[in-house]
Specification:
By secondary structure, the protein is α+β, with helices and mostly antiparallel strands. It folds into two domains: about 110 residues, Aspartate Aminotransferase, domain 1; about 60 residues, no CATH class. It has eight helices and four strands. Strands 1-2-3-4 form a four-stranded antiparallel beta sheet. Helix 6 packs across helix 8. The chain is elongated, with a radius of gyration of 22 Å.
Length: about 200
């Protein structure tokens, strides 16, 4: 038998008025199509699992989102939307949802894939060209030897995270603040996203 999570009830209750009927409908459809599914809260929004990840849904200020973990194998490419998180686009009312029969069929297909242990083939990532360290970051690192050593030892992706964060600032004041913060974090050996990394 499946299992509902009271945290999902709370999530729906705390969502915007327009979102509640959408989330309730999606939840009901998933449970109807896959009665053995289990609800969980992952990354702060509801997920449905059945022998692995099945689907997830989320609500935002002005829209909801829903997606299948193996959408590439569940839905035809022309059915998948990219205007928002998930695979159904930005859902603002029940009218935005595909037909109930379609959602049930997709959910059953997703469950069957998990039953069979099918995995989504990984796409080969094209290596990204390393970014050049901007002059202001180079100058700031020269003034802080410890940060310079740590930054040089970072992996290319960690260096890229900092470079992109600094260079994407729209205002000079924001860039200067980010630069100062970055050098401080780097000197402590912290990555750009250290707040979100799992602690041992």
């Amino acid at each position: 038998m499946g299992q509902k999570d009271p945290r999902v009830d709370a999530y729906i209750a705390q969502s915007a008025d327009f979102a509640r009927p959408i989330l309730k409908q999606l939840r009901a459809i998933v449970h109807e199509a896959c009665p053995e599914c289990v609800e969980e809260m992952k990354w702060s929004f509801p997920h449905f699992t059945y022998k692995g990840m099945l689907a997830s849904m989320a609500s935002f200020t002005q829209h909801c989102a829903f997606g299948f973990w193996k959408a590439a194998l569940v839905m035809d490419e022309d059915a998948r939307r990219t205007d928002g998180m998930g695979h159904l686009g930005r859902l603002t009312s029940l009218a935005d949802l595909p037909p109930r029969t379609t959602l049930i069929a997709w959910t059953k297909k997703a469950a069957a894939l998990n039953d069979a242990g099918v995995k989504v083939p990984r796409q080969r990532k094209t290596p990204r060209k390393p970014l050049r360290t901007p002059a202001d970051l180079q100058a700031a690192l020269k003034k802080n030897t410890k940060a310079a050593v740590v930054f040089a030892a970072f992996s290319p992706s960690k260096r890229r995270d900092y470079i992109e964060w600094i260079t994407q600032a729209r205002e000079a004041r924001t860039r200067a603040t980010r630069l100062k913060t970055a050098v401080g974090w780097i000197a402590q050996g912290k990555s750009r996203n250290w707040k979100y990394e799992k602690r041992a």
